[in-house]
Amino acid sequence: MKLRRILLGMVAAAMIPAAVHAADPVAIGTFSDWQAVTFEENGKTGCYITSRPIKEEGQYSQRGRTYVLVTHRPKDGSFDVVSIVAGYTYKEGSSVTVTIDDRDFTLFTHKDTAWAVDDDADRQLVAAMKSGNRMIVKGVSTRGTNTTDTYSLKGFTRAYNAIGEVCKR
Fold it and tell me: Looking at residue 75, what DSSP letter applies?
């Protein structure tokens, strides 16, 4: 099961830049700290919500763009896929800890992205994000730099519901 998830994660990681930078992404709306977007990819409609950290901590000299996505690709039967892009390459074999209020989740890493281990873990993360106030993401880079990113979950549920209207199950 984990190997399947890793392979799906690698495929999805390759698709994130396409989704985030789709030729004609259409904004559904901004909901406090979250944005909802729809996009076309290989003739299929997809949707995602995204947010950037409200606080980034770590002893780094350079770091790329950091964000979290929750993606739906209804034609592929894919919903609630949580991915966290670090803005650096994660240390090989490392994991990421996500804390939502007082609940911890462990995500696996591949290159610059962290993923939940399976669909059930994605659903649990999304449920926690809906009821939570803030999300803290802790990771480590290939250089051994520890980072802590804090995300606001204000507007998450409204943004999530908005993509649910466009990308229905």
Answer: G
Cα 127–Cα 165–Cα 117 angle in degrees, nearest 5: 35
Q: Which CATH number fits domain 2-166: 2.60.40.1880, 1.10.357.10, 3.10.20.310, 1.10.3720.10?
A: 2.60.40.1880
Cα–Cα distance, 153 to 16 (Å, whole number): 21
DSSP conformation letters of 7-28: HHHHHHHHHHHHHHT-SS-EEE
Q: Could you read off the pLDDT of 61-97 as tens digits, one per residue? A: 889 999 999 999 999 999 999 999 999 999 999 999 9
Which residues pair with residue 46 across a beta bridge? Answer: 39
Q: Which residues contact 120 (CB under 8 A, 6 or more apart)?
A: none
Rounded Cα distance, 117 and 134, in Å? 21
Hey, where are the domains in the chain?
2-166
For residue 63, the one-letter residue type is R
Residue in this structure with the two tokens 């949580």, named with its chain if needed = 82
The residues that bridge with 147 in the sheet, in sequence order, are: 58, 139
